[in-house]
Amino acid sequence: xxxxxxxxxxxxxxxxxxxxxxxxxxxxxxxxxxxxxxxxxxxxxxxxxxxxxxxxxxxxxxxxxxxxxxxxxxxxxxxxxxxxxxxxxxxxxxxxxxxxxxxxxxxxxxxxxxxxxxxxxxxxxxxxxxxxxxxxxxxxxxxxxxxxxxxxxxxxxxxxxxxxxxxxxxxxxxxxxxxxxxxxxxxxxxxxxxxxxxxxxxxxxxxxxxxxxxxxxxxxxxxxxxxxxxxxxxxxxxxxxxxxxxxxxxxxxxxxxxxxxxxxxxxxxxxxxxxxxxxxxxxxxxxxxxxxxxxxxxxxxxxxxxxxxxxxxxxxxxxxxxxxxxxxxxxxxxxxxxxxxxxxxxxxxxxxxxxxxxxxxxxxxxxxxxxxxxxxxxxxxxxxxxxxxxxxxxxxxxxxxxxxxxxxxxxxxxxxxxxxxxxxxxxxxxxxxxxxxxxxxxxxxxxxxxxxxxxxxxxxxxxxxxxxxxxxxxxxxxxxxxxxxxxxxxxxxxxxxxxxxxxxxxxxxxxxxxxxxxxxxxxxxxxxxxxxxxxxxxxxxxxxxxxxxxxxxxxxxxxxxxxxxxxxxxxxxxxxxxxxxxxxxxxxxxxxxxx
Length: 595
Fold this sequence. Notes:
The chain has helices spanning about 5, 15-20, 25-30, 40-45, 50-55, 60-70, 85-95, 100-110, 115-140, 145-155, 155-190, 210-225, 230-255, 270-280, 300-330, 340-350, 355-385, 405-420, 425-450, 460-485, 490-510, 525-540, 545-595; strands spanning about 200, 210. By secondary structure, it is mostly helical. It has a two-stranded antiparallel ribbon. It is globular. One of its GO terms (molecular function) is L-lysine transmembrane transporter activity. It comes from Quercus suber (Cork oak). Belongs to the amino acid-polyamine-organocation (APC) superfamily. Cationic amino acid transporter (CAT) (TC 2.A.3.3) family.
């Protein structure tokens, strides 16, 4: 395998380390020309304006992501997955413990028995994002997922900001699920979760319940992910099928105690309550985006990815709606426990023993979510490192296993550190906004992909596209602001939704589509991606203010790192790829002339 010091592009991986018999060096993390010495770095800093302009305006190409970027890893990932694997990865990535917690909160506080409708609305909203991801994943089956999609359509800088939030989302999500795993394991053992944690009073509240079990389960899952993607898939499929069986048991057992009278007051808090619950329940569907990172390991992306992504979301929506309906038939919504709804509901109807099935189901679900999380985040990180926005050492694919071992180890360490210290309350508030931000960007990128092609789209169509997109985004933000300000005054909604509708209509009829999908495409473009933008932004309006503050702080940190490191590393890497491409083209031309 080539080392990073040989060509400035491919970093030295684990195999290379064994050959050299040494630890990682600076060149393995920063092999680019700008970081070879302090003189080069100062020169690079003095060119920030020029380089930033270049990266802001530069869009990648499909061929670069599919070929040149993959080549940076030294070895190929193994194509071992089919639609069956992706289907169960999709279910396993999404269907964790959220259904067992969020349902109670949404039913009791917001929607009542209409929580079933809220789950359906949230599921359809998530499905819109799934459709956007599916078209990209089929056309660009690479490990980078949304990062690669945004690089191609919205440029390097936007992709970098998204990349930072993607990794942040995965670390927070993985840590949150790992700590939840401890909680449900404690339930199975008839213990309080804090019985398995170490309380350190000298550390600040929210960070003082140390969780060694969370670290243990994270490491165990990461080992499996490092060894084999096919082996991980088999484990995930078996565990997820068992999880579905437990869900079916809960529905069947619960319906034996159903009381239709509990549905007499179906919408106790009106339509606003249903939509408020939908915003909360949307996060029960998060996790599918990790499946899109498995494109490089999929045998037939054009067939397998649509079946896997869309099929898994459809099964999840149906399962969630059935569970929510069962819960509200078992108990009046006013008596549903907000924290442990299914456990308390079974106890209330004399089936106390069923709580162990609930805990077992949650434990199984969280294990597969952890597995899908570490697999997805490692592949994201691998592709980000291929562009040198992260240390290129992390782009290496292990020759024997065909998995991104370096990235998996680093991300597991990050997950474990956060999970060891941080409580669930702190983690939950950090997760939501990053997820919705990325989903919104992917929907915008899909519209850009369909309506803009460099050198083909006229200036008039380009300007109209920009104008309509600004109106779609602006009206979506205004709708969210109206909702946050007052849920009862409908005049504002009529105005903002009308602007959104007319902007989407104008885009549909006045701008010519520049590109048609070759294998699989989202139907009803631009309507469905435009609706996805509006819904994602609308849900953002329900998120608390402190989350936006944390998001701003994290984004500011990303900008500082970008200006000091990532900008120059990615700029040098891009120039190196261009030089290689030009040299290859010259060689081909010369060979053609010789012939």
